[in-house]
Automatic annotation (TrEMBL):
Gene3D superfamilies: MFS general substrate transporter like domains (1.20.1250.20)
Native source organism of the sequence: Cohnella soli
Top-level taxonomy: Bacteria, Bacillati, Bacillota, Bacilli, Bacillales
Transmembrane listed as a keyword: yes
Stated name of the protein: Major facilitator superfamily (MFS) profile domain-containing protein
Keywords, alphabetical: Membrane, Transmembrane, Transmembrane helix
């Protein structure tokens, strides 16, 4: 849903304020869902005696990533590094940086989603194979 929200924002660069507000609502709902599922994935990965430390490190990493991401986005907008005409409906030069930054965020969200899916699937496969190996060992004893 975050990618959908960013896509709606990217489409609505020249639209009315209420359209951008709807896109932001969709994006923030998607962010809330993804934050909850990532937190659950981290806590379920850790052993019971390390959940507190692991969640603390996870939260610290999230705070640092949010701060660094905001600083990088501000630097990209400030230096006008994103002024390539990639958006078909944007005519003014001032809007190109914002439109291209939103497109970059769409790509980041899609790549992150793909990596999360890939690694969570790999973890499930490893868990199944380790359970099968433990089951084989218990029958041999």
């Amino acid at each position: 849903m975050s990618a959908l929200g960013f896509t709606l924002i990217w489409i609505s660069i020249d639209q009315r304020v209420w359209w951008v507000a709807v896109a932001l609502i969709v994006m923030n709902i998607g962010y809330a869902f993804s934050q909850t599922s990532i937190t659950e994935s981290v806590s379920s990965t850790l052993s019971e005696d390390r959940i507190g430390i692991g969640m603390g490190i996870f939260s610290l990493g999230m705070f640092i990533a949010q701060a660094v991401g905001t600083a990088v986005a501000a630097k990209l907008l400030d230096d006008s590094l994103l002024t390539l005409p990639l958006h078909p409906f944007v005519d003014r030069q001032e809007q190109l940086s914002y439109a291209n930054l939103t497109l970059l965020m769409i790509l980041v969200v899609l790549c992150s989603t793909f990596m999360y899916y890939l690694f969570s699937r790999r973890r499930k496969t490893l868990n199944k194979s380790s359970k099968a190996t433990k089951g084989d060992m218990s029958y041999g004893n």
